[in-house]
Amino acid sequence: MDSRHYTLGVIVVAVAIAILGGETARPVVRSPALHGRVVAINIPGASAIAQIGAFLNVPPPGACANPIPSKFPAFIQPGAVLDPNRLLVGSRSNFGAPLASGVGKEGSFLSIDPNGEDVLSVPPNFAASGDQPSTLGGAVQMFSANSPHWLNGVNNPGANTAQYTGVSNPLGLSNNGPGLRWHRCVHRAWRRLQVA
Length: 196
What we know:
196 residues; alpha+beta; five-stranded antiparallel beta sheet; 13% strand
């Protein structure tokens, strides 16, 4: 037998083993079923989503979420903008709220109640008043937008970031532990709640 026939025979056997034996050698991995549903539509550029979750009420210097439960308890009640069961969803739209002057692109975080059975169709201009608006019976509430109502300077005029808002074209939402999402991405928006 010449070497070409031997080599060809080895290749045929190797391919046969790979095709026939390889399939039986691999364990079948079944992925668990994921059940989900569409909660809301008409959110331009929806880009980030996170359940708000419970805020820790740890005295400083502990959890950075401490100011919310201790100073803004009404905002974490059922149905309120920071209800732990609600979802925060980022969007590239201000939903009609005026754009803050010279500080970037439109963008917002909506607080959405996911518990209803109907799909929520978010109206494109529900936030035109520029304040802390809600729509669809409170199922959709504006948490923060790149609009003058949410400038950091509203409640902290001496801040280095007074001319900026907490959100502009959000592409993500940090959640590196309890409360850190507020500190890193949208923490200044809750300050505005105090005035609302």
